[in-house]
Amino acid sequence: MNMEYLKVDGSDIAVVSSDEKIIVDVQSALDLAMSVRYETGASKIVISKTAVCEEFFILSTGIAGEILQKFMNYHVKTAIYGDYSKYTSKPLKDFIYESNHGHDFFFVATKEEAIQKLREMG
Predict the structure, then answer these.
(1) pLDDT value at position 78?
(2) Of all helices (H) and strands (E), which one includes residue 116?
(3) Residue 37 burial (CB count, 10 A)
(4) Which of 24, 35, 39, 47 has the fewest CB neighbours in a 10 Å radius?
(5) What are the helix and strand counts (H, E) for the chain?
(6) 3-class DSSP state for residue 90?
(7) What is the average pLDDT across 45-55?
């Protein structure tokens, strides 16, 4: 796992990349958030969709909801970037839509969009 620290317009943002799955369950997501905060001081995380397990995108597993709740409880804002076009689930599309209209968790196409979205959240 690689972690890049950015300070953009006063926002501390960690950009995390990996060739392996980093988020595979709620505990691994929480471990990532705490590692980022400890190592960089950032409470905003940009992560590639490729580093997130596929079960996250199957809402019936409950993983996505639990992770979002934990991140909100710990005041961690996150943007996951990647291609979501292969997903046809209406509940997932609704979940992504609602998340993108909130203030804590975002699904975007590119790393640059992810950084911009988190920068806008102040």
Answers:
(1) 98
(2) helix 111-120
(3) 17
(4) 39
(5) 4, 5
(6) helix
(7) 97
d(CA 95, CA 46): 18
Tell me how crowded residue 16 is: count the other CB atoms within 10 A of its CB.
Answer: 20
In CATH, what number is assigned to the domain containing residue 6?
Answer: 3.30.750
State the total domains in the chain. 1
Amino acid residing at 40:
T
pTM across the whole model: 0.94
d(CA 31, CA 26): 9
Determine the Cα–Cα distance for residues 122 and 114; give it in Å rounded to an integer: 13
Find the domain containing 92 and state its range. Answer: 2-120
For 32, 80, 90, 121, the CA distances from 23, given in Å and listed in that order, are 8, 11, 23, 23
Instruction: Write the pLDDT tens digit of every residue in 72-119.
Output: 999 999 999 999 999 999 999 999 999 999 999 999 999 999 999 999
**pLDDT at residue 41 above 90?**
yes
